[in-house]
Design goal:
This protein has 369 residues and is of the alpha/beta class. The protein folds into 2 domains: 2-210, Nitrogenase molybdenum iron protein domain (Rossmann fold), CATH 3.40.50.1980; 222-367, Rossmann fold. It contains 13 helices and 19 strands. The strands form 5 sheets. The chain has a 5-stranded parallel β-sheet with strand order 7-6-5-10-11, with helices on one face. A 5-stranded mixed β-sheet has the order 15-12-17-18-19. Strand 10 (149-152), helix 5 and strand 11 form a beta-alpha-beta unit.
Length: 369
Amino acid sequence: MMASCNSDQKEAVNKTSEQPKTALVSLNYAEKLKIDHVQNISIVQITEPFKGAETSLTYYLIPKDQEVPDSLRSTRIIRTPVEKFACTSTTHLPGLTLLNSESTLVGFPSLALVSAPSITTRIEAGEVAELGKDYSLNTEVVLEVDPELLMTFTMDGNYKHLSPLSKAGIATIVNADYLETTPLGRAEWIKLFGALFQKTEMADSVFRSIESEYNRVKELLSTVEKKPTTFNGMDYNGVWYMPGGNSWMAKFLSHAGADYLWKENTETGSIELGFEAVYDRAVEADIWLNVHSFNTLSELEAADERYSKFKAYEKGMVFNSNARANENGGDDYYEAGFSRPDLVLKDLAKIFHPEIMAEHDLYFYKQLK
């Protein structure tokens, strides 16, 4: 029924203009995003707005100088180019910086966590409003700022907080890039921002550059014979969250020439393990990655002396992705890293195979001393 509805609406769009169709947006990696161009209208479909969602979300991006067709007036409309933009996750911000669209940002929650210099400059100048803390939006402030579009996300399908915004005429869109299971799949969501800001060609060019460099490094490491064993994370209140063997992190490790100790697992998200289960399998692992916000080995041992028993700890082969963290707790890895998988892959390749990546200096990662 949904497919029929979309087909009917596309046909309705076709009848509204004499202009020729433009090229379709090619999405080769993203699995949760579809973008079609019919005449001058972009039809964006978020196929899985949250994990397990059974219904997709469809948005119609219509140029501001074009009248909204009668057939689409009851649908989700976004007028483009978006000139007043607000969003709720630091992972959305590279969609602005990579397309030179920082000037559109008028609101964001937890401003202190932002890393991008071009955006922090706007924040310091008072040009970006504080919309709340973490994921809690201050509706009154959002209404006062009056963005043309608010980009948000949901982990469970709860859209209640968006209702007053919709009633006030503020368009909203759900970004589900976090559900992608490949590094390039997540990065390809830059093309959504290209459609929103009418910078489709620029977004495609930016992504092609990232894709090309990522695949170059991946190919460089595809024939390595000796693969260091590795594992991720640490214990949180009795639970060790380890990336699933089919997660985007596991793919990063595979492409970087590492032997991930949970690679046989089939989960796309995290798996919950006990300390003992991790210790039994990873005590002799060569390299340990991503230990929360710790900066030194002594801090890690102070948190739990059992960490010092791992071979990777004893050899000083513990690496963390917080080399670009700021004093407020913001971390550029969790802002730009998902949009720049080429840089993340280079870092991981440098860690696992420094002899091959001799010319690369770690960008997001650092070695704990």
